[in-house]
Amino acid sequence: MINYILQVILFQVLFLAIYDFFLSKETFFTKNRWYLLSTPVLSFLIPLIKIPTFKNAVPQEFFIQLPEIVLNPDRIIKESITTISFTDSINYIKILFWIGAVFFSVLFLIKLIKIINFIKKYGVQKLSEFSLIMIPNETKAFSFFNYIFLGSAIKETNRDKIIKHELVHSQQKHSLDLLFFEVLKILMWFNPMIYFYQKRITLVHEYISDAVVAKSETKESYINNLLSGYFQVENIEFVNQFYKKSLIKKRIIMMKKNQSKKMNQLKYLVLVPVLISMLFYSSCADNVSQEITESKKAPQTMYLNRNGKVTETVGTVESYLDVYLGMGEGYELPKTKELSIEDLSEGEKIEYLEFKESSEIGNDFKLGVKVFEYKNDRKVIVFSPSSFSDSNSSTEIVEKEEISFINIDKVPTFPGCDEGDRKCFSKMVQKHFSRNFDADMPKTLGLEPGRKRVFIAFKIDKEGDVVDVQARAPHNDIKEEVLKVMNSLPKMIPGEHQGKNITVKYSIPFTLFIE
How many CA atoms lie within 13 A of 111 on its CB side? Predict the structure, then answer.
């Protein structure tokens, strides 16, 4: 979700940059209005579009999970009981989001109620094209849908021109545009681009109304009318206001400009390569390497689907993944999103592969193992003897993904091992790590006693070099030591797939115990 939100904001930044640099100074006001309305919607839709052709244009990265490296193995047999406090289980980001959404919803309702109170308090004069509300002793002038609010202190000579201006807003439904951005502000109150969008479309609305009204009189006369009087401003973002000091200068400059040449409409074609680039980026986003992140363990929940009825039991053992078992005629897979091994954190990958190994009881019987998103923002391992009995099952997404990553024609080979010997490769990496890692160093860092997890990732490129070593550790000195050890691995014999040398990504969980 965070990646999706970041893409939405990034695309909105690009769309606004195009508007500011290429379109904002043109007199194609209606086209600019639709540009400012459509591009926020596109920014939400494009990250959801995955074009296979674009995705396949990025070389696939092969992935192998190596067995865990453990220092001080005598401590493995000792059970360590850990508890999760109430504060650790709270999703503060989600709470913060809802607090913001509720706050901006309340703010919106307060302003809406203020408009309704104006209508009720001062009454409505229904005219042929609009409804007029006169506000006593005020110089305010603004419109909301078919309602035009006019201060009674405004000079009679100015009222007709102001009403003509506000009537354009009413007829062209500009209030709908502003309400659209108010809704976006509630949903994405933390996104500054929404506020920039709203300011720009408010200005475009004024350009449109000015252009229409200025046709009925000279531009000089209309401009003098803008400058001649003092008007109060209502602090409501989703109403169209005749006089807003911050916009007056820009409106006058735009009215003095000559009509843009039709040839300048070609500037909108800048969108074409930008949209293609955005689609390419969003389609390939799943293939981009991400930082190593560790999910939190929680008491494991067992879900049992017996003949279509699901029951759940929360256990005492903590795990990264919950478990879902199914049996009987009415059994169905969860209807949530199915995941691949690349969608899992390092801890979740380890558990997934352990579950998969344990499920392979023999050649005649194998449990199907899948991973799905499920309840409470947790992922669930799904075991199903029946779902894999049909070799033509169309739901084997996770299994297919794993095959594409792990069943390489020739995996990289450690010097001295037989070609493609995975067990030898793993043992030699562990031996190299044990010999070169300073096991006494963590004891001097003042860390609390107990089990410490380190997650390591590296690649063996097409030349056999160990590259892109990454590590996440509880202390920076441990991280630096791990990087030093892994970068000292010897040159390997590169992996091959379909007759070509390939880059293979490895992941190793590493556990050390500090007394």
Answer: 14
Interatomic CA distance for residues 254 and 207, integer angstroms = 7
Helix axes 219-228, 245-256, angle to 10 degrees: 170
Instruction: Report CA-CA distances (Å) from 491 to 415, 424, 455, 471, 497.
Output: 8, 15, 22, 20, 19
φ, ψ for residue 262 (rounded to 5)?
Answer: -60, -30
Helix H, strand E, coil C: the string for 63-79 is: EEECCCEEECHHHHHCC
Eight-class DSSP state of 238: T
Q: Tell me the pLDDT tens digit for each residue of 234-277.
A: 556 666 666 666 677 788 888 888 888 989 999 999 999 999 88
Which has the closest alpha carbon to 35: 17, 48, 54? Answer: 17
Q: Report whether 341 contacts 398 (CB < 8 A).
A: yes
> Distance of CA 261 to CAs 25, 27, 203, 257, 483, Å?
12, 9, 21, 12, 60
Structure tokens at 194: 């929404």
State the sign of the Cα–Cα–Cα–Cα dihedral 250, 254, 260, 265: positive
Q: Are 237 and 189 a contacting pair, CB within 8 Å? A: no
Please give the structure tokens belonging to residue 334.
């969860």
Q: What angle do CA 264, 270, 272 make, to 5 degrees?
A: 130
β-bridge partners, 451: 513
Name the residue among 424, 385, 413, 407 with its Cα closest to residue 492.
413
Q: What are phi and psi of 375, to 5 degrees?
A: -70, 155
- Which two structure tokens, joined as six digits, stand for 470? 């990454």
The residues near 432 (Cβ < 8 Å, ≥ 6 apart) are: 485, 488, 489
3-state SS, residue 507 = strand
Extract the runs of DSSP E, i.e. beta strands, from 232-297.
240-241
Q: Is 285 helix (H, G, I), strand (E, B) or coil?
A: helix
> In DSSP terms, which residues pair with 302 in a beta bridge?
313, 323
In this structure, the strands spanning 504-514 and 69-71 are: parallel
Assess contact for 486 and 472: CB atoms under 8 A: no
Q: d(Cα 257, Cα 137) in Å, to the nearest integer?
A: 36
Q: Are the C-beta atoms of 176 and 155 separated by less than 8 Å?
A: no
What is the sign, positive or negative, of the torsion defined by CA atoms of 237, 238, 243, 247?
A: positive
Q: How far apart are the C-alpha atoms of 314 and 199, rounded to whole Å?
A: 51
pLDDT tens column, 406-452? 457 788 899 988 887 878 888 888 888 888 888 888 888 888 877 77
